[in-house]
Amino acid sequence: MLRYIRKFTKSAVFLLLISVTACKDDFVEVNNPGALSTSNYPGSINDLQQLLTGLYATQHSGGLYGHNLLGKAIGCWDHTVDLSWQGTATWIALAQNNTQPNDGFLFETWRDTWKGVQRANTLLTSIEAYRPKSLPAEQAALNEIKGQAQFLRAWYYYYLISIWGESFIINGQGGEKLGVPIITEAASGLDQTQVPRATVKEVWDFIISDLKSAETLLAGKTWTALNEKHKVSTWAVKGFLGKAYVYTQDWNNAKTYLKDVIDNSGKSLEPFDVYKDMFNGKNEFNSESLFEVNLNSDMTTWGAGDVSAGSSIGMVLAPTYVGDNGSAAASAWSNVFPHAKNIARFGFNEGHYFKPGTTQANATNVDPEYVARSLKVRQDKTVDPRLWVSCQQPYVDSMIVAGKKRAISHYLDITEINMEAWSFRKFVNLTGAESEINMNNPSNFYWLRLADVYLLYAETLLNSGDNATALEYINKVKRRAYSYPVDGASPVDYQTLADKTEATDPVLGNDPLKYERWAEFFGEGNWWFDVRRWQIGDKEASYYQRVRGGAIEWAPTDYAQPIPVQELNANTKITQNPGY
Predict the structure, then answer these.
(1) Going from the N-terminus, what domains does the chain have, and what CATH number goes with each?
(2) CA atoms within 13 A on the CB side of 546
(3) Three-class SS of 353-378
(4) Any signal peptide, and if so, which residues (predicted)?
(5) What SS3 string covers 9-25?
(6) Neighbouring C-beta atoms of residue 551, cutoff 10 Å
(7) Residue 192, class by beta-carbon neighbours within 10 Å (0-12 exposed, 13-18 middle, 19+ buried)?
(8) Tens-digit pLDDT profile for residues 488-533
């Protein structure tokens, strides 16, 4: 869990022993007045703000939104992605729902999520250490910092329990299963790193407790300054509470909090023309955003770490384009592409872009009739428009590379000529290659937005007996996707909760709520958690069947990922999830 703490502690003790045994009477001791210690740090509100900045930055550590989370974790488990890169066996296993306890990507996510918990605990301890010497005028600022720290600790625990918890709470069952350790203080010794797993219910209760405290401390708080818009607001807290209550099937509390956000936050869905580009560094902190993982381009270093201001997830998702010779060229690492079956799920059924009989993926072999049909269905909106918000279509869409417009290609290294090998669009650089921004993409990740609240609210109403209002909120989300006014009936409205969707598969074909959550948040990292809590992993595996590296190997224990072997070696009180 916190093996890095153990290593740090050992090193610190070792250095202390050296300094003690090496001292002699004639050795001149020099105290460093600038050294940090608990006696002089934190010494001001600014010191606490620095710790808070580090806590926010941990969200884009390499194991989280800095690099791994979408293309090397969640996106593999729910088959948002398939792999062009076939050189890492454990990565292929992730995509086959066969995650290995020794998977390095998984360990990095575990490590960095716990790093967030540790930093939250350090900040919360520091706040109370500073409080006795603080001024009366500083109390409001202290409470705001504490509220943000508790929200963020809950945020990190959300990922820990949702990825590694043995179960979700479903129909009142599963709360007694194993969750993750609950740690509320920064470890000061090895014994404090030896912590057993709490139950699933205990962890969710802890998350909700932190959020309830944050709700009080941040009551009425919004942030308007440009350098503060990323901070946790009162509506972010209420929205997160609503989501937590949905995830624990506490429908009464979920309804209260989600309705409060809908009625009183002042948030509204953005028009489609704004929505379609807001995942690519434009239109951030907009009218539907409740909480974003804030990123900025940082040309001094590359992404994949909390010392950087950006993310290198775009390096993994990067599109490929038509090079000068007509063949595919990588715009970055270009490791993953949308699983081919996702294209059909959006309702696209216009055949393939290469002419029949094509044996080489080259722009000279593109079928012009396919391009014409594709442009027409896009214009007529007979295919879900969110397909092109999420993905880039080969030989129809384009990107900019070194200032030159280039067509998107059949994805690099995909030797299966007839496979729908599109490129991702969300969270990639549309105005250049990722290397042109130092592998440091500045596009914010929308962690909670009003469309999510609408669909969570619809789910809550479905479980509370108000099907008519539930259908209306599902339709609000769909209307925006098709550029209709959100609050009035439209030609694309679902007429029932079992109406036909754009998908044709048994999972989503006649379930508007599930389809809208899948289509609206495609590529944003939400779907895996829906798959888990709805227990549809086996059905999804049957739909996708295989990835390029082999057949999907689904088992009921695949919902919970394995505790990394490094943690099992470091923490003697932790136990492995079943099936590993």
Answers:
(1) 1-24+43-60+96-214+544-575 (1.25.40.390), 313-442 (no CATH)
(2) 5
(3) CECCCCCCCCHHHECHHHHHHHHHHH
(4) 1-24
(5) HHHHHHHHHHHHHHCCC
(6) 12
(7) middle
(8) 999 999 999 999 999 999 999 999 999 999 999 999 999 999 999 9
